[in-house]
Structures are given as structure tokens and as C-alpha cells.
Amino acid sequence: MRIASGSYCCLLGPSGCGKSTTLRMIAGHESVTSGDILLDNRNITNLPAAARGTAMMFQSFALFPHLSATDNVAFSLKMKGIGKAERQKRAHDLLERVAMGHLAERKPGELSGGQQQRVALARALITEPRVLLLDEPLSALDPFLRIQMRAELRRWQKELGLTFVHVTHSQEEAMALADTMVVMNHGVIEQVDSPHEIYNHPANKFVARFMGGHNVIDTPAGPIAVRNDHMRIAPASNSGGLAAAITDVEYQGTYVLLGLALEAAAPGRQNVSVLLGEAAFLASPYAQGETVRLSWADADARALAVAH
Asked: Dihedral of CA 28/33/39/43: which sign?
């Protein structure tokens, strides 16, 4: 795997797939049994963590509860023997950069989750890393703050020009942040590409199912993926397509998500979903238990390989 300098890369996959282990190997917190890790063509595989040019931002933030924001940020400089005046100035400059200068003397317990995250980011940046490693940094935040903070992470990454490698299990988070997404499964990379390419051209059945928004349908010619917003639904009296029964109707505000079960006449009894805009659904509503016909355009079907 190659990550472009100055890009935002997200490692994505289910729990236990190896994404956090990969991040810890890059950081020097996990030993490497085979292969090499290169940073700017420098082999850092066996270097101690402090000599690698990386910094880690943890899920728990791991701030010292008895220290102020300034002293938390400056702590690594203190360990290097840098004088108090210089380290506090550098810490305060970074806190200003992440909009925390006015709260510099507060302790972690006096800060919100989002404010603590800004302090943790400043603490990671004070070592002037070439690569910032983020291990599920947004998972401890409430949904509204998570959306706000991911926008800030993206902005900071662009402003700083650093390489960010971010581990997440959230498809939405990865698509919102990443220049490059790495989809992992059982220690194997299934696909590496831009969010747009991975969502629209999943490499195999695992990626299509994991990313969501796709129906994986087994046909005589092999498995295909069709996005649920590209599925066509029509009354049962229409000809063509596949017969299906509506099993679920979920109103989601701007759209309605229909769950359906293809009838046994189709190749295997399979569950699929259809995403309809609110206006389209209200113009022609469907109810649970109703039988309908499903179809899709050939151009919207993607042939899939089997996963590794």
C-alpha cells in the first residue's frame, strides 16, 4: 500500500480486520513480522516510535487530567528538556491554531469532548510529525459533534499539508474525509481507491456489502451490485423485472428506504433494498406486504469478483 504525501487516507473495515494493528505498526507500537514501512523512502520499520516522524492521536484522547491544556500540549517538549518559556509559547501557538487559545489554562475535566479533541490534536502536532496517525478519533463524540469535528480535521489536514492516516469503522466518516480509502477484511486489503470509485465501483461482494447502499444480487452470470437508489420499482401488474414482496418501509426524512424479499422464482430468495426520494414515494406510496416488480438499467449493474 502506498499513501501519497500530504493526503488524507482512511483505513476502513469491520472490527478485527487489522486496521488499528496496521496503524500501530506505522507508529512503532506494534512489531512488524514481515515487510517494511517506509516514510519518504526512509525505512522506519525497526526505529523507535520517537524517531519515526509520526505522531498518534488516540480514541480516548489520553490527556493528563491534572495538567492544563497548555501543559498537556507542551508535555513532550518538557520530556525533551526544552525550556518552559519556549515550550509554553509553542503550545499556546498551536492551541490558538485549533481555536483553543482562550481555554489554554483549563484542565481536561473542564472541557467538552470536542475541546479535548482539539487539545489532543495540538499535542500530537507539537512534535512536528510528517504523518499524523488517528485511531478512531471521533468515535467518543456525539453524532452532531462528530460531523462538526470531521470537517475541522479535514480543514486542518489541508492547512497543515500533513499526511493523515485515519482508522475508522464508519463508511460515512471515511467517505467524508478521505482522498484515499483502504477497505480491509481479515488482515487483507480488499480495495484501495478514492471514495467515489469505491462506492460506485466496488471490487467484490465484500466491499459492496460493507460500504452499504448496494444490493448484491446473484444472477446466472455471476454476482452483481446495484445501488439501491438505482433500483426501479413498479406495481406488480407491470411486466418485466423480478417479483418481490415489501418487508419494511422506513421513512428517513428526505427519502424512504424499502426493504424487499425477491420471490423464490428469482435466482435464490434474496433481500434487497430500494431508496426512493420522499416526493417520489408520496406520489406513489408502497406498503409493507405489497408485491411489486423490481428492475434496473444494465449500465447500473456492476459485475463483482469474490472477496479474498
From this structure: positive
CATH number listed for the domain at residues 215-303: 2.40.50.140
Q: Does residue 39 contact residue 54 with C-beta atoms inside 8 Å?
A: yes
List every span in the chain annotated with CATH 3.40.50.300: 8-200
Q: Torsion angle of alpha carbons 142, 145, 146, 150, nearest 10°?
A: -170
pTM over 0.90: no
Tens-digit pLDDT profile for residues 45-89: 999 998 999 998 877 778 899 999 999 999 988 888 899 999 999
